[in-house]
């Protein structure tokens, strides 16, 4: 029997309560119940060394803001290694990191033990980076802390674990998985305020439906995300579908093609 992939995720934060958002709802809650994932939310204050449990101090060099101390992160790290005899894979969410996408999520989903260090304020003492394996940004904008990015990353990577999402094909059909956007979805009623579900989806002809959806994905990607389409390597079937799309367009309205013919 195939070994079930499990993942252990530890998060170090000064706001553990924020993580109730992902732990208590939907597929992640179910994945925790099914023990596909263990998510430990740890309070950074528990790793401080002084009685006031201070986690940040003013930065050196006349900075305005506060900088998070290196010590609590290192204490956590040392304890983790001591108790398990091996290093976890440490992720530091930060605007300076590699920009997050589905491919990076897929890579992270392969790890057995992940640790997220959530920073706040002006940032974390630079020396923490020495024990970080991957710095990850969720986009070119600035948030006040690493908690929301950590939740974004966890939710994305958990979708790749077998058993977290109902069916494997629904993950494989997701936007970006194969370099294309997802096709359109419809449910009941067939006629909603005069808008009809495409006939073919009611036909029961699985092969034609598959091609119809592929066509929809290709068109959507070209129209909404041409940058993705340009990067996509097309297989023979996809090329054939594109030829068909252009031929249909030509047959419907040859005049649209006139200008390019004149060039
Ligand atoms: Cl990972 N952290 C913060 N604080 N801001 C961000 C980010 C991460 N990614 C984009 N902006």
From TrEMBL:
Gene from which this protein is expressed: trmD
Highest taxon, organism lineage: Bacteria
GO molecular function, one term: tRNA (guanine(37)-N1)-methyltransferase activity
Function: Specifically methylates guanosine-37 in various tRNAs.
Protein name in the entry: tRNA (guanine-N(1)-)-methyltransferase
Catalytic activity: guanosine(37) in tRNA + S-adenosyl-L-methionine = N(1)-methylguanosine(37) in tRNA + S-adenosyl-L-homocysteine + H(+)
Entries under HAMAP family matching the protein: TrmD (MF_00605)
Keywords: Cytoplasm, Methyltransferase, S-adenosyl-L-methionine, Transferase, tRNA processing
Presence of keyword Lipid biosynthesis: no
GO biological process, one term: tRNA N1-guanine methylation
């Amino acid at each position: 029997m195939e070994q079930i992939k499990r993942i252990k995720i530890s998060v170090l934060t000064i706001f553990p309560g924020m993580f109730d958002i992902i732990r208590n709802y939907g597929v992640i809650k179910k994945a925790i119940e099914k023990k596909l994932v263990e998510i430990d939310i740890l309070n950074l204050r528990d790793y401080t060394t002084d009685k006031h449990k201070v986690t940040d101090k003013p930065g050196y060099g006349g900075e305005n803001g506060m900088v998070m101390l290196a010590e609590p992160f290192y204490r956590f790290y040392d304890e983790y290694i001591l108790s398990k005899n091996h290093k976890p894979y440490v992720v530091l969410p930060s605007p300076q990191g590699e920009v997050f996408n589905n491919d990076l999520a897929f890579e992270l989903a392969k790890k057995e033990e992940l640790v997220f260090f959530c920073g706040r304020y002006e940032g974390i003492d630079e020396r923490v980076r020495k024990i970080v394996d991957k710095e990850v940004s969720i986009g070119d904008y600035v948030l006040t802390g690493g908690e929301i990015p950590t939740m974004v990353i966890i939710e994305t990577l958990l979708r790749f674990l077998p058993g977290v999402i109902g069916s494997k094909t629904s993950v494989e059909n997701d936007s970006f998985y194969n370099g294309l956007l997802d096709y359109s979805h419809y449910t009941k009623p067939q006629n909603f305020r005069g808008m009809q579900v495409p006939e073919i989806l009611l036909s029961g002809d699985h092969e034609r439906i598959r091609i119809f959806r592929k066509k929809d994905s290709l068109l959507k990607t070209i129209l909404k995300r041409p940058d993705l389409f340009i990067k996509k390597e097309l297989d023979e079937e996809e090329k054939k579908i594109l030829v068909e799309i252009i031929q249909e367009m030509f047959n419907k309205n040859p005049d649209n093609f006139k200008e390019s013919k004149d060039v």
